[in-house]
Fold this sequence. Notes:
The structure is a single chain. It contains 18 helices and no strands. With about 400 residues, the chain is mainly α. It has one domain: MFS general substrate transporter like domains (Growth Hormone, Chain: A, Up-down Bundle).
Amino acid sequence: MLVAGTFVNRTGLVVLPFLALYLTGQRGFGVAQATLAVSLYGAGAFAGGFAGGWLSDRTGRRPVLLASLAGAAVPVALLPVAPTYAGVALCAFAFGLLAEMYRPAVSAAVADMLPEDRQPRAYAIVYWAINLGAAVGPALGGLIAARSYAGLFWLEGATLLGYAAIVLVAVPETQPEADDAGAAGRALSLRPLARDAALAALAAVVLLVGVGFFQLFSALPLTMAAAGMSELEFGLVVTVNGGLIVLIGLPVAAYVGQRLTTALVPGAVFLVAVGLALTGVAETFGAFVAFAVVWTLGEMAFLPVVPTIVARLAPVELRGSYQGVYHASWGLAKAIGPALGGLVLTAAGSTALWLGAGALAGIAAALLLGLMPVLRRRFSTPPASAGVPI
């Protein structure tokens, strides 16, 4: 049911990819204002990752899922009717906060339900469902945006409520009942997370990759528009990404997920770096598609396996909080990436932007390669309890 809800929600995730185009084309805001609004969504996502993870350990996974999905439908409905930029910015932040709270709860629920040897494939299936929706959503969004941008907001609100309905009817609570140690762990502060150096390093990797990766949702449509291409062509490029993951992403992610401490994972991040850097020299629709294939191959071998790594690092009683750190890092990348990309795009042009994005992902690949020996040691022993320094 979580996979089904994920697919429904992702099919309607059409606002964020087109938000920069909507704000510049339909609302008349500047590029810097448009990319700042996307970054404010990311700032909300950063807070939502922490909040969703923390709450899912303390109130359970199901309440967080319901509050997040139903609550997010409100700001997404208000955003297109907000009369001022301040209102748009507030709605974007609230949308990011509420819409992203459910993610660590889902990731924790997968770890609740399945033993370690089945988790890589399970996370791969969730990610596959995301991209099955992505294979439909952006192209559908492009068609809708060409006629009426208001339809984008209606579609996303409806699919958020659809996922909430699935949870309400068919998803039970998965959080393990706490024994004395687990109850004590929940009463503690989150200092064990701050002391986990491996988690911090992994969060830094995700942040660096994410800052580059989110240029694909903010700067890429603007780059393609400057090259004379339409919203539909941008939607088709994103659809190539989702379609490729649908075709081969599941076996690739499951294969790499069983080899978490090998060079395959940092190698995947390096492929993302290459694809982002090459985007800076693209001039035709075919070139944008070809380079999308490169970064997609890296994406499908990295992003679906990160929750498995986090789940292996986490004590049982802090599963949600650990996943919250991962998703908060992704949210921080959403906050930093679009605004930074808008500034670089305005000041230095698209070539400098994409080369810089590729460089950040390259640094992340090197950092992740250095983290592999630590992960090998950690995975050879069970996670420590939350009350013991990690």
